[in-house]
Amino acid sequence: MTDSKTNSLHRALYRILRPLARLLLRNGIPFAEFAELVRRAYVDAALEDFSDGRKKPTDSRAAVMTGLTRKEVRKQRGILAGEQGRSAGARHENRAARVVSGWVHDSAFQTGDGEPADLPFDGPLSFTELVKRYSGDMTPRAVLEELARVGVVATDASGKLVLRQRAYVPAGDSEEMLQIFGEDVSDLVATIDHNLVSSEEFSQPLFQRTLVYNNIPPEVMARWRRYAAQQSQAMLEQMDRWLGPHDRDIAGHGEAEATGEAVRTGVGIFYFEDPVQPDADREPE
Question: Per its UniProt record, what InterPro entries does this chain match (predicted)?
């Protein structure tokens, strides 16, 4: 890597790490704990992403690649093996989100117009049946309380449950939000990494776009936040209507087909804003 490219990468990494450091400090994560996770990630990447197609790199090669000692590589490899054993076969998608997705896409829980139906809590084609179908062993009452807490579900005058939002987003600094944080940032970095090497590997780049302006008056921001949220949600719902019916879990395909190859795919949208600091060197007009 050239000095120019290295310097550019260092600057980009610092911009990534700066808000990450703020999040870690706010949650009481000391540097030593973060450094331990970085070592583990280095070893994981060396072992999983840089094999020659036949076998994983040896501890010696992983040590050369990462700059860690072979002893440290062996230690982290052992920790990773234990973590993979505990998480084998785990589905990371939040089960409350799966209930909402089933409500939106499963025709058994829709109106004649294809919209999510208002559901009784018990009985045939009820919320209880929906939860049993899409949430595994979670109790219907627990799922309802969580969805009601974040405003996704409400109860109408007749006592039926009404879907108010087509997406489940946990509120506050909950464990679910931290899981989403890990998945969203990981997906974004993976897309950028793919696009950085796509020309070298003659592969198709993935869609990656950003809209940004840096001289917007503050009085516009409230309207812009509302507009951006409305348009983003509408676009996600439109794509969800296209992609959701192809999901094997939602579409109800047989197990024989479901045992074939599968792809995890999606589109992420996020909103950002930062105050622009005045240029101290700029002369007043």
Answer: DUF6502
Structural contact between residues 162 and 118, judged by C-beta atoms closer than 8 angstroms: yes
Residue 130, domain CATH:
1.10.10
Q: Which helix (H) or strand (E) holds 233?
A: helix 221-243
**Amino acid identity of 265?**
T
**Structural domain ending residue among the three candidates 90, 124, 147:** 90
pLDDT at 168 > cutoff 90: no
- Quote the CA–CA distance of 167 and 233 in Å, as a whole number: 9
What is the pLDDT averaged over residues 122-132?
Answer: 94
- Helix, coil or strand: residue 119: strand
Number of domains, the chain: 2
pTM: 0.71
CA dist., res. 245 & res. 251, Å (int): 5
Same domain, 14 and 76: yes
Could you tell me the residue range of the domain that residue 135 belongs to?
Answer: 95-163
Q: pLDDT per residue over 148-161, tens digit each?
A: 988 999 999 999 99
Exposed, middle or buried, 212 (CB in 10 Å: 0-12/13-18/19+)? exposed
The answer to whether residue 3 is domain-embedded is yes
Nearest residue to 37 via CA among 24, 54, 56, 53: 24
Say what the pLDDT of residue 255 is: 47
Asked if residue 107 is part of any domain, the answer here is yes
Among 44, 67, 90, residue at a domain's last position: 90
- Work out the angle at residue 215's Cα, subtended by the Cα atoms of residues 214 and 221, and round it to the nearest 5 degrees: 95
Tell me the longest C-alpha to C-alpha distance in the chain.
Answer: 72
